[in-house]
Automatic annotation (TrEMBL):
Protein name: MALT1 protein
A Pfam short name: Peptidase_C14
Protein species of origin: Serilophus lunatus
InterPro entries: Caspase-like_dom_sf, Caspase-related_regulators, Ig-like_dom, Ig-like_dom_sf, Ig-like_fold, Ig_sub, Ig_sub2, Pept_C14_caspase
A molecular function (GO) term: cysteine-type endopeptidase activity
SUPFAM superfamilies: Caspase-like, Immunoglobulin
Gene3D superfamilies in the record: 3.40.50.1460, Immunoglobulins
Ranges in coiled-coil conformation: none
Domain Caspase family p20: 201-245
Top-level lineage group: Eukaryota
GO terms of biological process kind: proteolysis
Gene from which the chain derives: Malt1_2
Amino acid sequence: TAIAITEQPVSVSVPVGYSFTLRCRAEGRTSLQYQWFCQHQSDCREIPGATNQDLPIIAEQTQLYTCRVNDLYRNAVFSDWVKVEVHQCVARGLPPRLWQGEPVIVLNPTEQRVEVGKPLQLQCAAMGVPAPSYQWYRNGNLLEQYKRKKLWIANAKVSDSGTYLCCASNSHGEHWTNAVDVHVGEQSQPPSLCCTSPGVRGKIALLVGNNCYQHHPNLMAPVRDVFELSRLLEQLGFQVVSLLD
């Protein structure tokens, strides 16, 4: 081909007001010209004056962007479309000047109670530069097919019950959402724990997994450890209460 894009722009997920730059690089047989375009909803338009390889942006609203590259022989190619997702919030404790683009959870999933056969939906969101990828887990086990912000099960089954959480990751690291319980087909609240009477033997295990610390990088293993220990202790006859952070 006459023109080859050597560096594609990348999608980002940022707080409103955040400043960053989209980059596009290409090679060709002649000198090259660049022109950036943006699309919001169904409106696609050329960005006036955006004729450089780099496009500085101050995040205001979620939009799609692409760059057209052409040479002196009227050959032209377009870069990948990338999404600039803008969150109307500020990352707590992460001023823009200090944020390096590592994933920051801005929406955690919530506990769900659904009937058998009804839809089950869990949702999360994270900021990151580049935009984070997502992976959902149930009871500590990876759910291979669920790799988006939204987890959607059209017809929930009893076997879909469990504790869910999602990992958001990019080239700067990874961060986990809160763990939430999903109950499918259970009409009543689970029985509350009570103290056993002196003549009754009861084995109750309380597991607390902390992975968020104020003055230390987040840990990953406690989340998985709690799930693994829960299963083991239940097999040994314990009634297990699991807490995270």
